[in-house]
Design brief:
alpha/beta; Aspartate Aminotransferase, domain 2; 14 strands; binds pyridoxal-5'-phosphate
C-alpha cells in the first residue's frame, strides 16, 4: 500500500479537498483515467512535459538506448557534452554537476554556497518552492503549504539558519537581514516564481537581490527548476538579465526523465569533492539514460525555436479565453500568461506579487472549478498554488474545448 495513497501529497487532492485523480495512461496532450476517459492535461507532470507525454523525438529508439544500460556509475563523454551544451545556454553555470531531482540540486547548491562563504544563513522567500529537503520546506509554496502542522520531522534548529522574506519586497529583505548580513551565505530565489501561482519579479527586484548579495559577500542562487528551459533556452536569468552565482535546473531538462543539475561560478564549484571539501554524489547522477534524454530535449529546442512562439501564442489564446469570460461576467480575476504558462486565481485585483496575495485566493471556488472542469474532460492541478502548463502538442482545438468547458464551469 502507498503511504497516504500517493508518492507526493499534491496528487491526493488534499490541498483542495477533492478526491485523488488516478491516471492509467498518457499520450500527447492527454491523460486517461482508469475507465479510459480522456482529459486534456494541463498538469503536464507539474512542468517537465514541454513536449507533451509521448513526443516521438523523445520516445522513439528508447529500446536502443536501454540496450546501452540505464546506470553505469562512471563518468562518460555524453555527460561532459551535456554540461557543455547547458553552459552554452546558461553561461553562469561555468561548472555543474548532474543529479536526479530538483530537490537534490537545490540542497546541493545551498551546501556549496555555505561552504564557499563559510557562513550558514540562507535567505529565502515565502511561497517559493525548492523541493522537500529540510530548510526548503519552511514557508514553501507549491504543494507543501507548510503550516506548522506540516513541518513534522524538521528539527527546529534548521530554522535558526534561515530567514524568510516577502517576494518582490526589498524592504522586507533588508528588514529580515538587519544585523545578520555578515552571516548570510546565500539568497535563494525563484527568479520567476511558479509555485504560488505564477508570480513575476517586479523591475528592480532581482537586481536588488544581486546588489545585496554582492554587498554582503553572499551568493545569489537562482532556482530555475521550473523556468529552464520552459521560458526559453536562456532561462529566467537571460530574460531578466541578472546573473546569479549559482543556478539549479531540473524538471523540463529531461523531458520527463529524472535529471537535474546545479552549477555556478568555477571558483564556487571548486568547493566540491574531489577538488574541495563539499561532498555530493548519487548512484543515478548523470546516468547515461537520463543524460541522453536531456540531449534529446536540447536537440529539439535548438532545432525548433518556433516551439516557443507556438506554445506562447496558444497560451495567449487560452488566457484571452479566460479574460473574455471574466469580462463578460464581471469577475475581477487577473489572468497571467507567460510563454507556455497560464494562471489565474479566485482573488480580486492585480496578479499576485507575493505569497500573501496568493494565499488570499478562494480555495473553495477553485475546488468547485477543478471538479467542474474534470467532469468536462479537463485535468487541472489539484492545488491553488500550481499553474496550467501547455505543451507543444496542445492544439487550438484543445484550447477551444477548454475555454468552452470553463464557460460552463466558472461561476
Ligand atoms: C522551483 C522548483 N525547485 C525545486 C523543485 C523540486 O524539484 P523535484 O520535485 O524534482 O525535487 C521544484 C518542484 O516543483 C520547483 O518547482
Amino acid at each position: 500500500m502507498l503511504a497516504g495513497g500517493c508518492d507526493s501529497p499534491v496528487r491526493s487532492g488534499w490541498s483542495i479537498g477533492e478526491p485523488m485523480f488516478v491516471q492509467s495512461f498518457a499520450q500527447g496532450a492527454y491523460a486517461y483515467d482508469e475507465a479510459g476517459r480522456r482529459y486534456i492535461d494541463y498538469v503536464m507532470g507539474y512542468g517537465p512535459l514541454l513536449f507533451g507525454h509521448t513526443h516521438p523525438g523523445l520516445v522513439s529508439g528508447l529500446d536502443e538506448l536501454a540496450r546501452g544500460g540505464f546506470v553505469w556509475g562512471v563518468t562518460h563523454p555524453e555527460e561532459v557534452r551535456l554540461a557543455e551544451r547547458v553552459r552554452a545556454h546558461l553561461p553562469s553555470m561555468e561548472r555543474m554537476r548532474f543529479v536526479t531531482t530538483g530537490s537534490e540540486a537545490v540542497m546541493s547548491a545551498v551546501r556549496v554556497a555555505r561552504a564557499f562563504t563559510q557562513r550558514s544563513l540562507v535567505l529565502k522567500f515565502a511561497g517559493n518552492y525548492h523541493g522537500h529537503f529540510d530548510l526548503a520546506l519552511l514557508d514553501a509554496g507549491a504543494s507543501a503549504q507548510t503550516l506548522d502542522a506540516r513541518r513534522g520531522g524538521i528539527p527546529q534548529g534548521v530554522a535558526r539558519d534561515v530567514v524568510i522574506a516577502r517576494y518582490n519586497d526589498l524592504d522586507c529583505v533588508d528588514a529580515v537581514l538587519r544585523g545578520r548580513e555578515e552571516t548570510l551565505a546565500a539568497i535563494l530565489v525563484e527568479p520567476i516564481c511558479g509555485n504560488m501561482g505564477w508570480v513575476r519579479p517586479e523591475p528592480g527586484f532581482l537586481e536588488g537581490l544581486r546588489e545585496r548579495s554582492n554587498r554582503v559577500g553572499a551568493l545569489l542562487i537562482f532556482d530555475e527548476v521550473i523556468t529552464w528551459p520552459r521560458l526559453g533556452l536562456r532561462g529566467a536569468q537571460g530574460r531578466e538579465n541578472v546573473t546569479p552565482d549559482m543556478t539549479t535546473v531540473g524538471k523540463i531538462m529531461g523531458g520527463g526523465a529524472p535529471i537535474a543539475a546545479f552549477g555556478g561560478r568555477a571558483e564556487v564549484m571548486e568547493m566540491l569533492a574531489p577538488d574541495g571539501p563539499v561532498f555530493t554524489g548519487g548512484t543515478h547522477a548523470g546516468n547515461p539514460f537520463c543524460v541522453a534524454m536531456a540531449h534529446r530535449v536540447l536537440d529539439l529546442l535548438e532545432a525548433h525555436p518556433e516551439y516557443y512562439t507556438q506554445t506562447a501564442s496558444l497560451a495567449r489564446r487560452l488566457a484571452d479565453g479566460f479574460r473574455a469570460i471574466f469580462a463578460q461576467r464581471g469577475l475581477p480575476y487577473a489572468v497571467v500568461q507567460d510563454e507556455s504558462v497560464v494562471d489565474f486565481s479566485f482573488r480580486a485585483g492585480a496578479p499576485s506579487r507575493n505569497y500573501d496575495d496568493a494565499r488570499a485566493a478562494d480555495k473553495a471556488r477553485y475546488a468547485a472549478y477543478y471538479r467542474a472542469m474534470l467532469e468536462r474532460g479537463i485535468l487541472l492541478p489539484p492545488s491553488v498554488n500550481e499553474v496550467m502548463f501547455l505543451s507543444i502538442v496542445h492544439s487550438a482545438e484543445d484550447v477551444g474545448t477548454t475555454v468552452a468547458a470553463a464557460c460552463e464551469a466558472l461561476p
